[in-house]
Design brief:
Keywords: Glycosyltransferase, Repeat, TPR repeat, Transferase. The structure is a single chain. By secondary structure, the protein is α/β, with parallel strands linked by helices. It is built from 26 helices and 13 strands. Strand 1, helix 13 and strand 2 form a beta-alpha-beta unit. It starts with 14 loop residues before the first helix and ends with a helix.
């Protein structure tokens, strides 16, 4: 496989090696590999400026050398000198359009600089040259997801999911390293495909459940155990409870779950955290203190993780990622604990695992007809989401319509949630509300090509692109006041609604219009918070609710002042009540298990 590591090494470089390569270059400067070898050695030694100057000189002397330009670009990429690195890779490709490594590294630079649309195009060129290099397809799917092209994600995933891969002649012909890579990556690929299904209106609940069942059949069923681990069946003893997630490092995870962790009773329960995320963060360090044990498990393979979970003798394991971390579902399928509970938030639906015991949800998100389709039993609560109030010293002022004279609608949801029909309805709303604007904010909009495509799309709908405000990452500015301070009404995307963004908008005094549907995420949140009047039952009602609010600035002004106190007093922001409710559930679930186990032994 092609290595993407930069030319550095822990092996010490001797002065003798350096002298030999200098002499070799001096004797034969007409050989391009002599420039490359010396340059790479200098770079390995940390002599970055000398290495780059040397390759620049070599590239001038060998104008037609694609490898020299590629290696120069590779070094510049390693130093994060992105613009010059791009020029070097492009120059190499002009000389040799079949240069796979140059296409792949160019795609990597576009990926790292949030130019997702160009990254997709470049990775696709690389994939055509080397279709057996699977990281290429991985990058294509990841970048398509970030571009919000859910249909293309589904189609790309089908390249590998259309047959039983592990029994195919192609798979059996791969080396062991590649097969191991595939065994961990294919479930993640299929997870991205299923997430894309959630974002597609034409994928109804039966079809979605079929895809999840197929995933479980391929990756989980062969791991289901014959017996469960033994535990002391005392129903009132101190329980050992674990949480597994690949999102412990993220700020959004903190906002949705810190409320529970902060208020857990660590005298009655012993809590274990398994952080399956590759990067440490301030967020993870903050959460660490709420657990008796904290384990970093991202580097563990499935067997090692299963061994750790088993040895920790947990009574209950709460998986907080579900299909958002599909690569670990085979571990959960082996049932390293007596009771497996699912408490995911993105997506907040079934894990598809037949061995999962309970799913924490609510009656709006999971009504009886949907619950019948899930393998888990449903443990009901007020809402599947709770929210940790932000610590931002910001007071809501007047809605911006009073200063600007026009209404600004907005959404801070990820781009892949903005379906075609959703954007069409938003365009209709803009047409119904004269002079109004639509403000979109998501990190994917750092991509200038994606912004141009959105502007062109709205122009085709007969709308001046100036009515579209596109915001990407603004690291120097607090997200909540910067974004919600300049919009009057938040529009919830569909069919896969926002969750965290609805809390944020309402706390900032901005009403949220949501469309009820088969996913029902927005309806769940708004109903639990007491704002069901903003839930539309069909697109026409959605449009009308948005227009009605836009025509009532006085109501928008009143909501700007009244919404925050309502949110802060909501049970969904009451950490003590939430923790007691959840711990009561843990105890009751354990009691049920003990009783059933004793009855089975009679």
């Amino acid at each position: 496989m092609f290595s993407a590591s930069f030319p550095t090494s822990d092996i010490p470089v001797t002065n003798q090696q350096l002298a030999i390569l200098r002499e070799t270059l001096q004797r034969a400067p007409e050989r391009e590999e002599n420039w490359i070898n010396l340059g790479n050695l200098l770079f390995q030694m940390g002599e970055y400026q000398e290495a780059i100057q040397l390759l620049q000189e070599g590239a001038r002397k060998h104008e037609n050398s694609a490898p020299l330009k590629y290696n120069l670009g590779y070094m510049l990429e390693g130093l994060q000198q992105w613009p010059i690195s791009i020029l070097c890779y492009q120059a190499a490709l002009e000389l040799n359009p079949q240069f796979f490594e140059a296409w792949f590294r160019l795609g990597e630079v576009f990926r790292q600089t949030n130019r997702h649309t160009e990254a997709v195009q470049v990775f696709q060129r690389a994939f055509k040259l080397k279709p057996d290099y699977l990281p290429c397809l991985q990058r294509i799917v990841e970048q398509l997801t970030l571009c919000g092209d859910s249909l293309a994600v589904i189609q790309a995933a089908e390249l590998f999911l259309k047959e039983d891969l592990e029994t195919s002649a192609w798979y059996l012909g791969l080396n062991a390293e590649t097969q191991k890579y595939l065994s961990t990556w294919i479930p993640r690929l299929e997870g991205l495909q299923i997430f894309s299904f959630f974002c597609r209106e034409e994928i109804d609940t039966p079809a979605l459940m079929g895809a999840i069942r197929d995933f479980s059949r391929r990756h989980a069923e062969k791991h289901y155990p014959e017996n469960l681990p033994d535990r002391d069946l005392n129903p009132e003893r101190k329980l050992r409870i674990g949480y597994l997630s690949n999102e412990f490092h993220s700020e959004s995870f903190y906002q949705l779950h810190a409320l529970l962790f902060q208020n857990q009773n660590r005298e009655k329960f012993e809590y274990f955290a398994y952080a399956d995320c590759p990067t440490a963060s301030v967020t993870a360090e903050t959460l660490r203190e709420y657990f008796h044990s904290w384990q970093e498990v991202a580097s563990l393979d499935d067997e090692a993780l299963f061994k750790l979970l088993s040895e920790d003798q947990l009574d209950l394991l709460v998986d907080m990622s579900g299909l958002a971390n599909p690569g670990r579902l085979p571990v959960l399928a082996r049932k390293p604990v007596p009771l497996l509970l699912i408490s995911g938030s993105n997506p907040p639906f079934t894990s598809g695992l037949k061995v999962a015991d309970w799913l924490f949800s609510d009656p709006v998100l999971t009504p009886p007809d949907i619950a019948e389709l899930y393998p888990e039993k449903i443990w009901p609560s007020d809402c599947f989401l709770h929210w940790t109030l932000p610590e931002i010293p910001y007071e809501s002022g007047l809605p911006p319509v009073f200063e600007r004279g026009y209404i600004t609608f907005g959404s801070a949801n990820s781009i892949n949630k903005l379906s075609g029909r959703c954007l069409e309805l938003w365009a209709q709303i803009l047409k119904q509300v004269p002079q109004s604007r639509l403000c979109l904010k998501t990190f994917a909009l750092d991509d200038p090509v994606l912004c141009q495509e959105l502007q062109a799309w709205f122009l085709r709908q007969g709308l001046n692109p100036e009515r579209l405000m596109l915001l990407g990452t603004l690291p120097e500015q607090p997200h909540l006041p910067m974004f919600y301070g300049q919009i009057d009404i938040a529009l919830d995307p569909f069919p896969y609604n926002g969750g965290l963004t609805s809390f944020e908008a309402l706390w900032m005094g901005v009403p949220v219009i949501s469309l009820a549907g088969e996913r029902r995420v927005g309806q769940s949140v708004l109903t639990a918070l007491g704002f069901s009047e903003w839930v539309a039952q069909n697109p026409q009602a959605y449009l009308q609710k948005a227009v009605n609010l836009a025509q009532d600035p006085a109501q928008l002004k009143a909501l700007r002042l009244s919404l925050r106190p309502q949110i802060e007093q909501s049970v969904l922001c009451d950490g003590v009540a939430f923790a007691r409710e959840r711990e009561t559930a843990y105890r009751e679930i354990w009691r049920k298990y003990c009783l059933a186990s004793e009855q089975n032994q009679i």
